Amino acid sequence: xxxxxxxxxxxxxxxxxKTRYRELAITHIRDECQKTGLAAIVAGHYMFWPRxxxxxxxxxxxxxxxxxxxxxxxxxxxxxLCRRRQRDQTRKREPVTPxxxxxxxxxxxxxxxxxxxDSGICFVPLESALINPASPIRExxxxxxxxxxxxxxxxxxRVLATVDEVLANVRAxxxxxxxxxxxxxxxxxxxxxxxxxxxxxxxxSRKRDIGQQVSTPAEDIFREHGYTYEAFRQVAMSYSKVKGxxxxxxxxxxxxTLYPEFLSLLRRVKTHGHVMALVVTCGLRQIWENVIEEQGxxxxxxxxxxxxxxxxxxxxDKSKEAVVNRLRGPPHNLRVVAFGxxxxxxxxxxxxxxxxxxxxxxxxxxASMEDALSTAIEQLGINGPPHGHNLxxxxxxxxxxxRLDTALLPVVDLLDPTSAFNQFLFGxxxxxxxxxxxxxxxxxxxxxxxxxxxxxxxxxEAHRRIGWYLATEFITxxxxxxxxxxxxxxxxxxxxHRLLHEQDTTIVALMRGGEPMAFGVNDAxxxxxxxxxxxPEDVKPHHLSKQHTIILVDSVVNNGKxxxxxxxxxxxxxxxxxxxxxxxxxxxxxxEATGAEHELGRVLRSDGKFRLVALRVxxxxxxxxxxxxxxxxxxxxxxxx
Length: 641
Known about the structure:
Layout (H helix, E strand, L loop, with lengths): L6 H5 L3 H22 L10 E2 L8 E2 L3 H6 L2 E6 L2 H10 L10 H22 L2 E6 L8 H13 L3 H21 L7 E5 L10 H13 L9 H9 L3 H12 L4 H10 L5 H10 L5 E10 H10 L6 E6 L10 H12 L6 E6 L5 H6 L2 E6 L9 H11 L11 E5 L24 H8 L5 E3 L4 H11 L5 H24 L1 E7 L5 E7 L5 E6 L4 H10 L4 E5 L7 H4 L4 E9 L3 H11 L2 H6 L1 E10 L8 H8 L3 E9 L11 H6 L6
Parallel strand pairs: 3-4, 5-6, 5-8, 6-7, 8-9, 9-10, 11-18, 14-15, 14-16, 16-17, 17-18
Antiparallel strand pairs: 1-2, 12-13
Helix pairs in contact: 4-5, 7-14, 8-11, 9-10, 11-13, 18-19, 19-20
């Protein structure tokens, strides 16, 4: 059809020819947009419905579905449309009733909504009553401009800006420098409940169609499109269509109960000024802000989450990962511990310094998380218990079955304030430092080492016991265990346990102060190779050959210079040295040396295969000399120094 032909000529064509020209037109518009980088606004029809027809004729084409990113449906009142048709002086229009126009509108919106969900198009019914009559064109223009700048990239930028804004607001209310961020998923993590499902359940109940509801609108969208950015946008649009949205959010929040373990953890944030807490949810921000406020924690726990499409913030799994990376990286440089329960949380958990998988009741927890966890750990190149990965699990309640096995995914206790994990959360120490400072057993074992009346063989025995304790309590958790067959006293074989790859482990006693404690470590791991080393050069390549773990043992770590020199020596020995796990065992570690501004602290935070285990940490900067030197006390040489 030539350029000079008009509407009458078009109407004279066959339906097949009309469809062809419609597709040519929208394809031309799409090509121009791609060529120029501009956005196109197309005024068009979805269907025509003459008054004497039982159903309308759809003029929407496959090319339309492949082209449009947004559909704004101007939902003008049927009575208004009827008057406009009657007053139209440019075209003769058949008379129709408002009832027919209303039926036409409803059917168009129903079909367009279904198409949008199937194809990822943003469908927005816009009631004319909600548009400012004084400036309708400007208001719609501003909305279209927002769509022009709406993309996953722009959403990512807004997420990062929100993180910066939240952190700035928190810092403005604190006297203490913030060094640690606790980042939480919401549903099935802080609570056993799914607030999104509860929201839709209450919405269905209000409409009295709960008996028909097998799945929620959000679940239907995710089942069709997966957990993509476009799918999350569709969910946000679904929320925007709910009348009484705020009231529903309030009702759900009032009936949401936090796990006692997490409520206790969040309350501890109130008394630790260097720790901030942030809930990052793919669900509804308003629900979770209300939940937090109900507990009186609104000042201390902030929420980043989604809502209706007008909030212009979509939270996906990538968004959660971006939040953690933003907090960990410049300019904030915080330590981050993240908590989550599902595969959507895994990118966030892996990006954090510590990622804690929350394991709930078998009947309600994520069915796909087990396989996702295994895959994630395998992708990190790990074929056994953790070498360098940062994932742990916490079990709520403590009677449920853990994920995988506890050697591959160690368990942390949120309620034990003396645990190494809780010390990491609130003590300001790097996660790769494990210590027993506040444990009663550690205080007992430390007493002989601090008693000036004890030296020589008695002191060496005390150090030996400490070495055995640290080996069994901490190194077994870091490295993991393996099973082997042992004879039972009743005459049959049974299962015993030993350190994973124990026969491929080297214990290095840093002479001379580390020897007694190293003997204790060797008592716990008798199959390990034992090496005395005065200097780093005493560690030779054959000591590392085919080994899985190197355990460096010293009595005291002051500034960390010695153990770092040994680490540097080991890492310089080719591929085996670069990848081998190094665990430092010490009786006492000066806490200042583990700070992020010191070399030891920086290495502990950056090298995932370098760990430090200590009986206790100390802020006493005293360095022993002569009679107070640990080596002299151990070997009775105080008078020689």
